[in-house]
């Protein structure tokens, strides 16, 4: 097995997508057999980087974008594992943001699991975060992932998911002003991040702004922000629970009446989010965990899939 840096290229982004799709037991939208990421296929083949492509589902598209972003900002924290034939079998994406290290993605092909690939990838990523006082990662319900992260010293905090269709008639109006945000709100968001998770997201905000709608609130009691994308609350952070509830209420209003929505990674500390979601007709369900090292669960906070 060879570990090499993830490059900021279409080919490596597709390799990340391939591994993630397979690890989630969901076939890639475009694939040309087991050698789809080997060099040298015909230029017009369906799986070729230069060939025709089917439209990407939103989760797959997100993996492409955030893999390239982290390959640019944190090349030493991102690694692809390849077998002797050069085929990708695993990937890890991680980043350092001030004093906080975050694990964005760890995935291994099913046939390569149980061979130490995931452990080695995580070891490399954690070495990149050496010196950071805090660590944060999301976790699926897969028991192998739990074992790897627990052995790595993470405290695993169970999380919930809220999902369903929005009922605005049952939801009170926001209790204050929520405005459309933009690049000019970067200092506000970095300040909130530092207070909640010990390190600003920094350049990750630039990437989130490219793909998400940003809502912000700022008054004499505090401030906060929320990213929304295609029926998902991508991330939310605020200095008080009241402001967090205000933002989540506005975000559900932005999704719209009767539209499907999903809010992931809610720890037990996010009861304010449960109150808003249940009032809007959403249903809770268990959904994995949040892994933390050197920190308590941030609150009020909903971590991003890509940039926890």
From TrEMBL:
Matches recorded under PROSITE patterns: GNAT
Pfam families recorded: Acetyltransf_1 (PF00583)
Gene3D superfamilies referenced in this protein's UniProt entry, alphabetically: 3.40.630.30
CDD domains tied to this protein: NAT_SF
Boundaries of every N-acetyltransferase domain copy: 1-173
Record's signal peptide: none
Location of the region described as Disordered in the Swiss-Prot/TrEMBL record: 27-58
Protein name (record): N-acetyltransferase domain-containing protein
Organism: Streptomyces macrosporus
């Amino acid at each position: 097995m060879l570990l090499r840096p993830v490059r900021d290229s279409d080919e490596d982004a597709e390799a990340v997508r391939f591994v993630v799709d397979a690890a989630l037991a969901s076939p890639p939208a475009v694939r040309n057999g087991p050698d789809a990421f080997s060099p040298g296929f015909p230029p017009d083949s369906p799986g070729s980087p230069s060939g025709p492509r089917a439209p990407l589902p939103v989760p797959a598209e997100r993996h492409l974008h955030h893999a390239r972003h982290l390959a640019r900002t944190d090349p030493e924290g991102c690694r692809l594992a390849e077998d002797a034939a050069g085929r990708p079998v695993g990937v890890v994406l991680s980043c350092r943001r001030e004093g906080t290290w975050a694990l964005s993605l760890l995935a291994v092909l099913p046939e390569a699991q149980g061979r130490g690939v995931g452990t080695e990838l995580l070891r490399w990523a954690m070495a990149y975060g050496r010196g950071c006082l805090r660590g944060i990662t999301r976790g699926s319900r897969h028991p192998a992932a739990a074992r790897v992260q627990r052995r790595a010293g993470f405290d695993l905090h169970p999380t919930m998911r809220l999902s369903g269709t929005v009922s605005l008639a049952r939801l009170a109006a926001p209790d204050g002003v929520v405005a459309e945000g933009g690049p000019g709100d970067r200092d506000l968001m970095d300040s909130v991040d530092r207070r909640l998770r010990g390190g600003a997201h920094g350049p990750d905000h630039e990437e989130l702004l490219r793909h998400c709608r940003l809502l912000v609130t700022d008054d004499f009691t505090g401030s906060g922000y929320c990213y929304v994308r295609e029926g998902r609350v991508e991330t939310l952070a605020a200095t008080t629970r009241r402001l967090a509830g205000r933002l989540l209420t506005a975000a559900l209003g932005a999704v719209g009446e009767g539209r499907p929505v999903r809010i992931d990674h809610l720890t037990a500390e996010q009861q304010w989010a449960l109150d808003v979601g249940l009032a809007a007709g959403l249903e809770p369900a268990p959904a994995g965990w949040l892994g933390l090292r050197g920190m308590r669960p941030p609150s009020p906070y909903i971590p991003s899939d890509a940039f926890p």
